[in-house]
Design a protein that fits this description.
This protein is 26% helix and 23% strand. It starts with 28 loop residues before the first helix and ends in a 6-residue tail after the last helix. Keywords: Nucleus, Phosphoprotein.
């Protein structure tokens, strides 16, 4: 029996703590199909005290020079609460990952072209936030790392799997997955509401989260992060909630 899918593109709504998220047609499927073979680039990328403290530290480390923007970290959404999709429970929490052999599993079931392209861009050893989504209290709970780069997602060929795709061919697979391994829990749970407060503040003062994709393309289950975005969110571990 295949592992529960980490995918949440089809049939999943925006996070419950985001009442102002725009509810588009499911994963914008029509537009995404037209973009299947496009190379898609993500956009560039507090409490006020959190941003100032982060900025002060970064300037001290770099002599005040701005860091070059690259997308070398990721945010992976997964559902920690039970939800049936075609009779299969797609629940997969951080505890489920930790229970896997060597605390490693494949990240299967992604059926959105932009999210798939992000999977294909992942490099060995890159780190990602494990984000609990579509639940009572969404947010970041842990850090994982990429331990195997993109390869064909076998669930696309399994007729018993809820993510079976009859249009995909083994000689030219549409969908990919990567392997991820648990690194550590974050020092505290970092809720979506807190990240959003920083995002709104940074839109005003030019902070690192001003263009964070979590609020630009809310419904994508795989999202890139700049080094600045990753470092700032990681710095929130040390702040009181």
């Amino acid at each position: 029996m295949p592992w529960p899918s980490r995918k949440r593109e089809k049939g999943a709504g925006a996070d419950k703590k985001e009442p102002d998220a725009k509810v588009a047609k499911t994963e914008e499927e029509t537009r995404d199909k037209k973009e299947e073979e496009k190379s898609t680039k993500p956009p560039a990328g507090s409490s006020k005290s959190g941003w100032k403290n982060w900025k002060k530290t970064k300037e001290s480390d770099s002599g005040g020079e701005e860091s070059k923007i690259t997308y070398c970290h990721w945010l992976l959404k997964s559902e920690p609460e039970s939800r049936l999709e075609k009779g299969v429970d797609v629940k997969f929490s951080i505890e489920d990952l930790k229970a896997q052999p060597n605390q490693t599993t494949f990240w299967d079931g992604v059926r959105n072209y932009q999210a798939r392209n992000f999977l294909r861009a992942m490099k060995l050893g890159q780190q990602a936030f494990f984000y609990h989504s579509n639940c009572k209290e969404p947010g970041i709970v842990a850090i994982v790392k990429i331990v195997k780069e993109a390869y064909p997602d076998h669930t696309q060929f399994d007729q018993k799997d809820p993510h079976y795709d009859s249009t995909s061919r083994k000689e030219n697979p549409k969908w990919s997955m990567v392997d991820v391994q648990f690194v550590r829990m974050t020092k505290r749970f970092i809720p979506l509401s807190e990240i959003k407060a920083h995002h709104l503040a940074h839109k005003e003062d030019g902070g690192p989260l001003k263009n964070m994709m979590l609020f630009v393309r809310q419904r994508l289950s795989i999202q890139p992060l700049t080094q600045e975005e990753f470092d700032f969110i990681l710095s929130l571990e040390e702040e009181k909630p």
